[in-house]
Amino acid sequence: MSNDIDSPPTADHRKPSRRALLGWTAGGLAAGAAAGLAGGIALGADSNPPRPSSGRRRFEHKVVLITGATSGIGAAAARQFAAEGARVAFCGRRENLGRAVESEIRAAGGEATYMRADVQIESDVRDFVDAAVHRYNGLDVAFNNAGITIQKKLHEYATADFDRVLATNLRGSFLAMKYQVPHMIRAGGGTIVVTSSSNALATDAGRAAYTASKRALVGLVQSAALDYAADNIRVNTLIPGTTDTELVWRAAGLESIPAEARQVFLKQWAGSNVPGLGRLATPEEIAAFALTLASPEHPYLTGAQLVIDGGKTAHA
């Protein structure tokens, strides 16, 4: 995928304002956030705190479908669902990464199957859902997580670029639910979690397509929650803040730099631009919250938008 973004400035540039960067979530960091990288900020031991296994088995014998799970939040969720006893079917476009996640889960004693699918293509989504339900004989939980970003000023978007972002982020979630819901109705209920973004609440320049798609997902979920409440299907929106994923690295132009330098940069940026905890989320932290929303622990929770952003949007 192509994420168009200006190159970060050198360390000689004036430090960008907090407001200029505040809106970024898993859709990407703002251009120009590299000021001060040469300052030699050391990595702290708590920059990405590990999340130990909970030991819980909330999804024992449940069937879980995940879109966009070859890396990042989706891959972390696949591992965590499997660790809690779920049979996990997940999709994504990058077959090498998908196979690697599948192998890792199975090596750890979990059950998972990767299937290649592009959520922009309706037949791919339908076939993925149907094949997963057939393989595991049911569907209990869906985590619709696939997403991309392309950032430009609004008038600079090619129509195809704008359409591709909405087709992946918004239409992809619609298609996933369209084919997931009938299986859940026949089974007597289920739970759906959809990944939005804190850009749905507060955004900035250059994110028209991403923000439009992520804000629209909130409305899509609200309506779907009302559509299927009587069918015992709960639908909720997960709203994460900036998360340390490949999507963020690509959008910030950091994908090709050494991992240690990238972490130095991200730590410095977050310290200045994420009010509250002052760091990026780990994929594991966001995934763990997705599992909470999908679990049977909160049967009265539906149509909600749950924010997990380290305090970022609490500060205007």
In terms of structural class, how would the helical and strand content be classed?
alpha/beta
Q: How many helix segments?
A: 9
Q: What is the radius of gyration computed over CA atoms, rounded to a whole number of angstroms?
A: 19 Å
Number of strands: 7
Secondary-structure element pattern, one letter each: HEHEHEHEHEHEHHHE
Compile the SSE list and pairings.
Blueprint: H1 18-21, E1 63-67, H2 72-83, E2 87-92, H3 95-107, E3 111-116, H4 122-136, E4 141-144, H5 159-187, E5 190-195, H6 208-228, E6 233-240, H7 246-251, H8 259-273, H9 283-294, E7 305-308
Helix pairs in contact: 2-3, 2-9, 4-5, 5-6
List descriptors:
316 residues, alpha/beta, seven-stranded parallel β-sheet, 7 strands, globular
Summary of the model, kept short:
This protein is an alpha/beta fold.
Question: Any overview of this molecule?
Answer:
With 316 residues, this protein is α/β, with parallel strands linked by helices. The protein is 40% helix and 12% strand. The longest helix is centred in the middle third of the chain and has 29 residues, at 159-187. The radius of gyration is 19 Å and the shape is globular.
